Amino acid sequence: MPPRDDQDYEAKRQQIIDGALQVFSSEGFEKATNKDIARAARINSPGLIYHYFKDKTDLFRQVVEERAPILQLVTHGDDFMESEPREVLTMFADSFVTMMDNRAGLAMFKMMLAESTRKPAVAAIFNKVGPWRGFNYLRRYLEHQMDLGRLRRIDPGAAVRCFMGPLVAYMIMREIFVQEDAQSLSPETMVTTTVDLFLYGLEVNRNHEGAGEG
Amino acid sequence: MPPRDDQDYEAKRQQIIDGALQVFSSEGFEKATNKDIARAARINSPGLIYHYFKDKTDLFRQVVEERAPILQLVTHGDDFMESEPREVLTMFADSFVTMMDNRAGLAMFKMMLAESTRKPAVAAIFNKVGPWRGFNYLRRYLEHQMDLGRLRRIDPGAAVRCFMGPLVAYMIMREIFVQEDAQSLSPETMVTTTVDLFLYGLEVNRNHEGAGEG
DNA sequence: TAATCTTGATTGATTAGTCAATCAAATACA
DNA sequence: TGTATTTGATTGACTAATCAATCAAGATTA
To answer: Which of B52, B114, B126, B199 fits A117 for a cystine, CB–CB 3.0-4.6 Å?
Structure first.
């Protein structure tokens, strides 16, 4: 059955999705009531949700599928494969930190952590667009740079985690456990420290003082 | 009214707490039903829970308060303040990884992530016994080592996150987003890589091949 | 008019929490 | 020692509330 007006229909659908994202991220899937979602989405009736979505689970799935891409880190195909590690890593780290400065981005990040913990199926969806994608891109890049001899060769999977881990931990500490010292530690400091330390430990042509690979 | 037998009473209380931890960690607070908890705790009636706990929230609070300490990392007072970074950091990292090899430890870790996201009060409790405690201990240690001149001086808060972050990220990727490559990357490799890379980047008397004091 | 859109009342299922009744281990007592 | 009494432990039926989902009726627009 064709809607009265495609644009109006889609706009209202998005409106409900936006409201649902806010409620799901702050309350969790089970505790989010249709009444809450209707209020957050500024529609007057919970019943209306069922005109646009099959049920609560369907709504949740669509929220995830349509809003999760905000969790995607910059991945420019192979454009940056040859670029300097410092440039690429800084860009990558900045991209992650910037994502969290955004209301919807932070909401998705929290929702990803909370919901994925209990629901493997949800975890798989998030993983596909978020962590796995970013990790894979970065791993390929690091492996290539190791091949080029610009970086010491270590386990690439471990290397990716050693780079992204500090940033993930920083965000969790700052946004979930509201640690004061994480508030005073600026994202910029965290980014530069992470990049510096990582490269200090991995760079071969070390302008800091010797010790390379065998 | 005093219980018939203190030991029996406490044993049964612990039995319910154990069951509740399993259900809370796999289902989440809201979706965990008293029936589930009773079954997991091997008691025959959901009603019995109310003989030992005021309500569901009280039960949850006691589960957290009595089982969260399992999340504590080794913190030996000031015993290790003077010890070599490699020794102390390896011990610390091992302690974290070992915690997750334990069924209850993993359950608590997941519960901490999932429940803390929505409930600042719960986050505060977890933070106190877990993250904050470990982070603070490690920060003091690293600052001391920087004072001694054994480590380069960088922002200590950032340093702690640079060290623990990779391990946290590794566990999240392995246990929540069930990434295949995290399965093949052993905890031991992750620990040694993390320690190596961190010290490679921070150690002053860089004896990365051979020994020597500066 | 004819279709979709919107509403809010309703339904049916679920669940946290209560409660009266029963059970069983101690203890008191003969 | 054997019986009665006390008291906490345990049960399962019950209640009151919540909430996802449905539905019929009315509003709106093409």
So the answer is: B114
